[in-house]
Amino acid sequence: MGKPKIVVLGAGYAGLKTTRELVKSLAPEEADLVLVNKHNYHYETTWLHEVAAGTLNPNQARFMISDVVNPNRVRLIYDAVVEVNKEDQRVILENGEITYDYLVIALGFESNTFGIKGMEENAYAIVDIDSSREIREHLEYQFAKYKTDENAKESDLSILVGGAGFTGIELLGELVERIPKLCKKYDVDRHKVRIINVEAMPSILPMFDKDLVSYAMQSLEDRGVEFKLGTAINECTEDGFIVGDDNELIEAGTVVWTGGVTGSSVLTESGFELTKGKVTVDGDLRAPGFDNIFILGDCAWVMDEEAGRPFPPTAQAAMQHADTCANNIKAVLRNDPLETFDFDDKGTVASLGVTDGIGNVFSGTALKGKAAAAMKKVVDNRSIYLLGGPKIVLKKGKFRPF
Ligand SMILES: Cc1cc2nc3c(=O)[nH]c(=O)nc-3n(C[C@H](O)[C@H](O)[C@H](O)COP(=O)(O)OP(=O)(O)OC[C@H]3O[C@@H](n4cnc5c(N)ncnc54)[C@H](O)[C@@H]3O)c2cc1C
């Protein structure tokens, strides 16, 4: 029998780290490795809100896959995955197909509008470099247009952010830094620009405790964010959101939906059994009923057996899935026992712009303000270190002084 072929789909946190771990732990004679990704670069998904607001250059948030994975050792295919044919062990790509003996599905998330009327058509979403760059360009265009187009309205300058989870709040933190700069650049009075957050739940950032949440809200309000919490979005139109019981229209020139994500639609196309768009994997991260398919990152629900619910889908977890997955593929090839995934929670930090943030780290130490912002930079640099090594940290790391 020839060498087994291991195919990894997606070069995000989970897929790229799995590939790098497999390169380290398997001898070239043991297996052929293939990595498939839509682009020839990896991007830091957790930095995309900065790209969208225009506070970070898109190129800093990405690096070439061939700079961190040796193409002589791993076959790199830059193409979009359409579907996995599990019976024939084949992956259908937009421009071809490829067979596998072992498959790792790590295709990340897609925006989920929960069927809110008009949201998909009229709101932007932060999904990848291209979609984030588009928000950045659109936002700036509203300012340029306001100064030249006699039909432009003041509300064209307004920004509506739907959803007050991690992505929404981190985006607001960047916007309050970016907007004053755009106002200065385009000679616009800052008071003309509204930044409005609409959230159906009564609170923001449900993963943090009350003190940190109040701190975050106050910090953002002090810098001009208007919160409309406990407010359902009934519809998104070209003009903005229609909200609440009285169907109030909140007008804005830039509308971003951050209120929900789901696993890659490739999972649906491939006929996996899904719970809220993701596959509930076994403890060893394999898809139930498929000994040769591992599903990681935002495509997977990994159960926290003690808590009786899934671990939260994060970049931190995705990279830890990668380690378990690489170990388990090695174990399968060598007929060793497989390990069960165990999440080592190193904490969570949310940025509120460059110099502010909130966080819980080291099993319960609460951080806020500059300490949290500094910790966020450590987390961000650690992530690219784990995925790319010291060279990438030097090239793309965040060393901006406060
Ligand atoms: C703005 C923002 C901020 C966040 N902040 C944090 C944070 O502070 N901490 C934290 O832990 N988590 C954070 N998250 C969540 C975190 O980013 C995700 O949990 C994480 O990206 C999941 O990793 P992944 O490997 O599953 O997917 P990703 O890292 O998103 O990678 C998926 C990869 O698959 C590729 N791909 C997708 N579809 C296809 C296809 N059809 N064909 C080929 N390739 C494809 C993509 O291009 C990408 O390279 C944040 C998310 C966002 C959007």
- Strand order, largest beta sheet: 5-2-1-9-21
Structural class by sheet pairing and helices: alpha/beta
- Could you give the distance between the termini? 58 Å
Rg computed from alpha carbons, rounded to a whole number of angstroms: 22 Å
Topology:
Layout: E1 5-9, H1 13-25, E2 32-37, E3 41-43, H2 48-53, E4 62-64, E5 74-78, E6 81-85, E7 90-93, E8 96-99, E9 102-105, E10 109-111, H3 119-122, E11 124-125, H4 129-148, E12 159-162, H5 166-185, E13 195-198, H6 210-222, E14 225-228, E15 233-237, E16 240-243, E17 248-251, E18 254-257, E19 261-263, H7 265-269, E20 279-280, E21 293-295, E22 300-301, E23 303-304, E24 309-310, H8 315-333, E25 347-351, E26 357-361, E27 365-368, H9 370-388, H10 390-396
Parallel strand pairs: 1-2, 1-9, 2-5, 9-21, 11-18, 12-13, 12-18, 13-14, 20-22
Antiparallel strand pairs: 3-4, 6-7, 7-8, 10-19, 15-16, 16-17, 23-24, 25-26, 26-27
Helix pairs in contact: 1-8, 9-10
This protein binds flavin-adenine dinucleotide.
Residues 10-15, 36-39, 42, 45-46, 48-49, 80-81, 106-109, 126, 128, 166-167, 170, 264, 266, 297-298, 313-316, 318 line the site of flavin-adenine dinucleotide.
